[in-house]
Amino acid sequence: MYIENKTEGHHGPAWIGKVEFSKSGQTVYFDNKALKKLKNTGISGNHFDVETGEEYWVSGVKKNGSDRHKFGGGKIMLDKNSIEDYLTLVDFDVIDENKFIIVEFRKTDKNRFNEIENAEIDFKNADIRSRYLDNNHKKLV
Fold first, then answer.
1. 107 torsion bin: left (phi>0), alpha (psi -120 to 50), beta (else)
2. pLDDT digits over 87-136, tens only?
3. Element at 58 (helix H, strand E)
4. Closest CA to 14 of 82, 100, 93, 94
5. Can you give the pTM of this predicted structure?
6. What residue spans define the domains of the chain?
C-alpha cells in the first residue's frame, strides 16, 4: 500500500509497504500506526491516525511508480521487507535511490489502539449519560 501523511500537504512523509487491515477493513495498521477510514473524505486524506488525528492518504501502489501527487515531492520510505513484492507490482526492477529510502516498518501493537478507541467510546458514553442526569445526579430524566 501507498500511505502519505497529508498534514504537510503533498510533501508529507510517505511510505510503501505491507499493511494489515482490521476485520472490518476500516482500519489500516502499519509501522505501529492505526489509520481509520474517514466516513467523509477530509481535505486531502481518506484515513486519520487514531492517536494524532492527522489525515493520511492510503491507496494501492501505482504500476508506473508515480504514487506522489503531481505537485508533491519527497522521497518515499519503502519497507525493506516489501521490496521484492513491490518490484513484482511495478514496471521497473531496480529501486531508484533518488525516489526511495529503505526503512523497516515497526510491528504494530493493535491492542494499544483498541484501548485508545475503547477509551474514546467510554468517554463519549459518559458524556452522553451526564446529559440525561437530573441536577441532583441521582436519576436519569
1. beta
2. 999 999 999 999 999 999 999 988 888 777 766 545 444 444 444 444 44
3. strand 55-59
4. 100
5. 0.80
6. 2-106, 109-141
